[in-house]
User: Fold this.
Amino acid sequence: MSQSTDPPQQSAARPLRRDVSDLFSGGRLTAIPRKAARREQLLVHLAETLFSVERTYTEPEVNEALRTVHEDCSAMRRHLITSGLLTRTRDGRSYRRSTTTL
Assistant:
């Protein structure tokens, strides 16, 4: 008798981050989203799942990690850099996951 018609409270406290599982099939990314907001959601997911904040990566290591989900690792790497989720040294020899959160 005490059923509430109020919307669940967890959606108000949760960040506006959508699930990206629909972008994958068999663990592989089916396509890089064209819409910037959706692509950003994907990039956040990839940065959080493929790269550790405490570690420095070489470019081949970044490429290898990205190839586990999509064959165009250079496009994915570029998107991660321009979004600020990965940083790299000026000479391009080392990469780190950014410590800032979106």
About this structure: Helices lie at 10-13, 36-50, 59-67, 73-82.
